[in-house]
Amino acid sequence: MSIAKEFTKGLWEIIPPFRLVLGLCPTLAVTTSAENGMGMGLATTFVLVCSNLLVSLLRKIIPSKVRIAAYVVIIASFVVIVELMMQAYTFPLYQALGIFIPLIVVNCIILGRAEAFAGKNGPVASIADGLGVGLGFTISLAVLGAFREILGSGTLWGQGLFWEGFEPFTFMVRAPGAFVALGLFLAAINLISAKLEDRKRRAQS
Amino acid sequence: MSFGDYMLFIVSAILVNNILLAKFLGNCPFLGVSKRMDTATGMSMAVIFVMVMAGMITWLVQYYILVPLNIEYLQTIAFILVIAALVQLVEIVMAKSLPALYRALGIFLPLITTNCAVLGVAIININEEYDFVDTLVFSLASALGYSLALILFAGIRERFMLIKMPKAFQGTSIGLVVAGFLALAFSGFAGLVGGH
Lengths: 205, 196
What we know:
The complex is a heterodimer. Helix content of chain A is about 70%, strand content about 0%. Chain A is mainly alpha-helical. Chain A has one domain (about 5-205). A two-stranded antiparallel ribbon of chain A has the order 1-2. The mean pLDDT of chain A is about 85. Chain B is mostly helical. Chain B is built from 9 helices and no strands. The two termini of chain B are about 20 Å apart. Classes of the chains: A mainly alpha, B mainly alpha.
């Protein structure tokens, strides 16, 4: 597979968290607004790209028996870097995301990519894979965040969208709304991919 | 804290601020193992066990190693290593001394390392500046809340086999929507603990 293909597969084929149903906790917790969703996505992307690169470079040195432990240490180191950087430069976002920044360590997407891809492929392909999957995750979170923000608070990126006296559907920004919104998104993605496959099959016959 | 305070604290952690449905921690295994009741119960037991142990040990690590050495910024790395080592240790000890329990929990133990509820509770314990007893109570109550939500959800999900539903909703999608309604039901307890 070419480098471009490694990159683009993360954007649709295995786009997390819709196709690759991993990393649900941050997805559900921080998507109360588009901005938070995107911030979380970018922080995750940074960790994912760096850890993919390092895992790929060290893949011949790490003994396979302790590889998971080694991956966890690599990921945790980058998470600490992100945590300290966000504390220094984007403090409001750091506060909004709260406990979910240190919890990037246990985001299964990152460990999953290290195990499934970076541990077996070269550094350039691993960076492409990390960027693709990370950006896919960022886009998903931003879109989901925008959906919930528009419905739940009637704003987008903090800007009011509707007329005065508009009563927002606050259910959507609260905890139960997160589950329902993600469930509906998954259903929509299933529906779209079923339609696309159907069309492909018909075009072939 | 008095006894009454503790009761309130426990009820709040189990029902009102349920770790799964209100704080969104540990959702991957929640959706992963909830298709059958027996796997859900096995996972619940493993979570209760590991969460309480991890809560206590990470508290000790924080206040007796990280704080005296002034390296609190290594908290994340230290905690995840402690949890990973703990899970491994529990697995080895259990296989030797409690083979029956090991067979029941066996496959769920390794999964717990990446269950963010365990690390999440450990970090909350420190962020909220709980003392050792609070940490113990909070970890246990959170784990019980996790189990309650997981087992209830598995009970609902087992019945999905009996109904016809649109193809697009099958699997995880309907699971999430149902989890949303479960979360809605739990949010009904919000009035129990004042002012939250």
